[in-house]
Amino acid sequence: MIEQIKNSLQKSSYDFLRTNEHLKDKMMFLTLGGSYAYGTNVESSDIDVRGCALNSKSDLIGMSHFEQVIDTSTDTVIYAFNKLIPLLLNCNPNCIELLGCKKDHYLYISPEGKQLLENAKLFLSQKAIHSFGGYADAQLRRLQNALARDSYPQSEKEKHVMNSLKSAMYSFEQRYQHFEDGSIKLYVDTSQKENFDSEIYMDIQLQHYPLRDYKGLWAEMHNIVKDYSKLNGRNRKKDNVHLNKHAMHLIRLYLMCIDILEKQEINTYREKEHDLLMSIRNGKYQKEDGTFQNEFFEMVDEYQYKMEQAIKHTTLPKKPNYKKVEEFVMSVNEKVITGEYR
What we know:
Structural class: alpha+beta
Shape: globular
Strand content: 5-15%
Distance between the termini: 32 Å
Mean pLDDT: 88
Order of helices and strands: HHEHEHEEHHEHHHEEHHHHH
Helix content: 40-55%
Low-confidence stretches: 231-237
C-alpha cells in the first residue's frame, strides 16, 4: 500500500511538490497524516500528506515570507521549518504526531529532516498535558453536542466544561498579562438553580489588570460555556460515521498523551490499540438512537484517570529546553544561509 501511495505522488496532482519554489528542493520530510498515520484507515479513507520544508535564505535574512503550503485537492499540508518549530514546542497534537509516524510512512526524508526526527524528544514537555487535553476536551464537546445529551447527567456536562476552561486558562498566560495563581479561581460546587445539580463558580481578585486583556479572557470563557450550552442534542448534521470518528479520536488523543508523559515517546501509529480504535470507529459503542453506551463514557473516564496518573508521575520538564531547541534551529538555518544545504 505504501508503494502505491509513493507512486501516486508522481501524478500530476502532486506536481506542486516539485514545482513550488518553497518546496521543490527544500523538502525535509514527507509523511502520512490522518487515518493512515494512525492505522485506523478504511477503504474510503483519504490519503493525507504532511511534511516540512526548509525556509529559504530570503525567508531568513531577506524580505520573503513562507509559513506553509496547503493543497486542498490532495489534502496536503507542508509546514515551513520556522513555522513548525513553535507548534512543536507547544506540543500541538497535529504537529507533534508528525515526528512519531511509522517508519515506512515517511515517504521522503532528507538529511536535515532526519536530524529533526532524531531530535523529537527536544520538543516534549508537560505542555502536552494542556495541548492534548484541550484537543480531547474539544473532541468530547463535539461528540456530546451532536448527541441527545438530555440523557447525559448535568453534573457530568459541567465537569467537561470545567476541563475545557482549565485548558483555556493555561493558554491565557501566553496571550494575556499574567495574573497571580488564585486571582481567577474556577471550581464546581452545588448549584442553587432548580435544573442544576452542580455548576461552575468563580472567585476573582484582580488589581491593576488591563481591561482589554480581561475582556479577551472573559470572552474565551464565555464562548466555551456558550458552545457547550447549545442543547441542539439531536443534531443530525453529523452522521453516525463522523460521530464514531470523533469518539475514536478522543480515545486516540488520550493514548498518545499518556505515551508522551509516561514513556517520552511519540507513537502516532496505534498498532496495539488498533482493534479497540476500529471497534469505536465501526460503531460498537453507539446505540440505535445515535447516542453512545455508558460503557464508552466509562472508557473515557478510565483514560482520563490514566492521564491524571501519568501527569502526577511524569518526568518530563514543565517546558522544553528552549536553548537547545534554539541551537538546533540555528544550526539548520545557518547552513541554509551559508549555502551548505540549499
